[in-house]
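Running this now, will post back.
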Amino acid sequence: MTTATGLIDVHTHHYPQAYLEACRRPDSGFTHYIRDDGRIVVLQDGAVALAAPQPLPGTDARLSAMDSAGVRLQVLSISAPNVYALPRSLRVAVTRDCNDELEAMAAAGDGRLRVFASVPLPEVDEALAEADRALNLPHTVGLMLCTTVARRTLDDPVFAPFWEHLSRRGTVVFVHPTTACCTEGLRDYALSLALDFLAETTNAIGRLVYSGTFDQFPGIRWIFSHLGGSTPFVMHRFDNYASQFPEARAHITRKPSDIIRELMFDTVTTHRPALRCALDTFDDRQLMFGSDYPHVPGGLQVFVDTFDGIGMSAEQRTAIGWRNAEQLLGLS
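Update: finished.
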């Protein structure tokens, strides 16, 4: 790896001590248990929302893993369920502490770590204040949001002032799935985390398309995780049903697929045919490398092997591996 060619990984996670302590509180809005492999499993409404590895890799271990896999830079974020269920009396302070802890970790990362900061939604004014504060930190390159926030979808009109502000700022927003608003049928077999996360992302994209939110706030630069859920597999359905149902085209003036082609997606999958489908569906400029580190067994290398195993051209690997991220996140 060289500083010119190493991969940029836009989808990695860390859980600050302030966050894990908040999740363990009896008034957190969550329940939790310790799995037999030591992971802290956090449940929301009885459904699995997070399985955080323990112990988490520190900065040195993370950088060593990056070196071994040929990863130049990683962006850190707090995954689902994030902070939204925490009591309002705690949420702002915990979010600030988490963002500061991630910033400190990035500052100690030899120039190789950046941050997607969290915001204490659903209160918009408080979220705007923390967004502005965090985005002015030296290693923060965007915001992390989940597909639903306190049982509200991202196209909910209550969030319009938030999106308007981020659009004016030209903010990068990284969207990660979370436990659905209704967990009925998702509490067994860890289905909420294992499979429904992908449905959450697909539905969030659909709602933001059909509601006109993407077009209404064009300055936001969106990244959706895990290939956009099932989006590359069902692209035709976005257009088909907009043509069949008037309510699906009431707020937009162009085809849903044209809107989706302006979004970005990370490559988080270890299933090569899925990545191949995304590569065949999206333009090269829409994809960026991601690993979900440190969640998946096999660490970084299994994602790099998947990425390198689908037969991309050198130009595609350069674009998806690091150049798109450099340009979007202002890293070049």
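The chain has one domain: 7-329. More later if anyone needs it.
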